[in-house]
Amino acid sequence: MTHAPTAAxxxxxxxxTAQAERLIELGVHxxxxxxxxxxxxxxxxxxxxxxxDSLLTVHPDLAPASALAPLLQREDKAGFVVVDMHxxxxxxxxxxxxxxxxxxxxxxxxxRGDDMANWTPDEALPALTERGRxxxxxxxGIHWVLQQPAVLERNQCFMTIGSRLRKANGTLDxxxxxxxxxxxxxxxxxxxxxxxxVGWCWAGNRHTWLGFGSAAxxx
Length: 219
Fold this sequence. Notes:
Blueprint: H1 16-26, H2 28-32, H3 36-48, E1 54-58, H4 65-68, E2 73-74, E3 77-78, E4 80-81, E5 92-93, E6 104-108, H5 121-130, E7 134-135, H6 138-147, E8 157-159, E9 163-164, E10 175-181, E11 196-202, E12 210-212, E13 214-215, E14 217-218
Parallel strand pairs: 4-11, 8-12
Antiparallel strand pairs: 1-6, 2-3, 5-9, 6-14, 7-13, 8-10, 10-11
């Protein structure tokens, strides 16, 4: 399988200060127990440092996926977590992924990984490592969609394989998180058709419509 460089995804982000205002508008700072002024100050410092195209995110321990997913919106439909992922907040960073200790961090050069569509997560992880990129955590992927909803498109969505669930025996659960658009079938319910959906795929399965979200780094 060819490991071609990941092309830049054409979804420019708002400025860090605009992202901060978006998170405050959604109440993410309250979910995380953060002062709005501190969030604005962090964003302003990032912007002054030239981090114009970086994604501003809250540490997953402070703003878990279960709290962030309902804030997603698409065609007036709120986001949701699939019913068989009740343990969504137990998905944690893979070994080897370092998340900054502070309440806020930046992701540089975020990409949807369209060129890796139809790869399995098991194939994509070492390929991303070889490219010098880090897979997105589930909460980071949700932050990206909160700031730039257009990254979710019909037949072009993404997995967030930086988050995995580790079993009591130390092995990894076979599920890998992903964010895509509901078709309103099965247990999703017809009323959720076209809503943003946090779900999962098997680590060994391929999906033509799912790339692999990644970043150049975290700071």
